[in-house]
Amino acid sequence: MAEETHQFRVLEFYSGIGGMHYAFDASGHKGQILKAFDINTTANEVYAHNHGKKQLAQRNIEAVPIEFYDKQEADVWLMSPPCQPYTRTGNQEGSKDNRAKSFLYLMDILPKMTHPPNYILLENVKGFEESDSRDLLVEALAASGYEFQEFLITPLQIGIPNSRMRYYCLARKTEKVGSFVHPVTGTLIGYIPSLDAEQNETKEFVDGRKQGDLSGLSTPAAKRRRTSISTTTLTKDGAASKPDEETILADPTLAHRVDTLDRFIEFKDTEDERMKKYMISDKTLLKYGRLFDIVKESTRRSCCFTKGYYHFVESTGSILQMVHEKDTATTFDEAEALKAAETTDETEKAENQAKALALLRTLGLRYFTENEVAQLMGFPILEGKFSFPATTSLKQRYRVLGNSINVKVVSQLVQYLLTSSTNSESTKAVGTEAEGSA
């Protein structure tokens, strides 16, 4: 009888609107999401709308006993812990932040489990790699017999015109499932290694950290060494560098591999009635318009969309200029000149303001729709596999998207994580249904 493909048993932590679920489905591997943990009611409503309620567990992760996690006998843990403790706009308290509590709990129980996962994927913001939480992650993985590889990856690298640099850690329990397709480096790498056997030679890299030498791992000196290692990044040719999204776009060879925004745009007609709720308000346009990151459909990038999009102006995501033939800078310069014109006549001043506003309106500036943002983040909108419940407000939709992941980047990482260097027996087995519920 022919062997059956392994059915991976997956626990999805901090499941949000189901990004990890979609990423696993898109990875090409077969499996079952046993439980999806999240305490955000809005995110869970979106998850249930698309995936059903069966696997949802609206529980605090740290309130679930280790016995439950052991009983699941999950092969894979997928997780995207809260990023606020590590963001440049947050308080950067790392493990001291109360929002890190559940992640610390998982790292605490991991070495104590009878049936720990064979594979782990963690996603977080750039900055996590320099936090004490990263040190605790490394310690837990080492204590539990995992081999791990760390990454800094942006969607631009796989052709998606969106800047969303993120930290990823992939870990495999080598005693059970063997090593990665490529040897681990002990550094952050700035690319996803190829699974194509013909390309292995050009993308091979050497482990300079000596994976087996883990003595003194928890000493302050070792932590400092790991932090210095983690901020070194290797490109695919083995050169050490810092990942730089602007460099990718400045390189003509790399930039032309990135799609233009055109194919992600849902609405292009400025007269479309559906556009009204997405247009920039007159007050915001006059007062803050120049602070926006403004892009056109021909642009090959957009800024990272955060949960503050549609609510705050700066550093929350790009604004689309629908009238692409208009020169943005010139139009703003002309509007600024009108606003700044010296006059003591209040009527004339008001007329200049009105002219400036009329000029700025000709650009057709609007927010990206929630569906456009979701597409840029890799959610299967066009395939009809992802949508929002009618009860979810526009502001809520942007918030939960801002807290989510790039599905396409993570799907490639899942594919790499779950592929072994050899066709071992551990990669071919049939899972059984999980028992118990949270």
From TrEMBL:
Enzyme class: transferase
UniProt keyword Ribosomal protein present: no
Residue ranges of the TM segments: none
Alphabetical keyword list: Methyltransferase, S-adenosyl-L-methionine, Transferase
Keyword presence, Methyltransferase: yes
Enzyme Commission number(s) of this protein: 2.1.1.204
Sequence segments annotated as region (Disordered): 214-243
One Gene Ontology biological process: methylation
NCBIfam families: dcm
UniProt protein name: tRNA (cytosine(38)-C(5))-methyltransferase
Species of origin: Podila minutissima
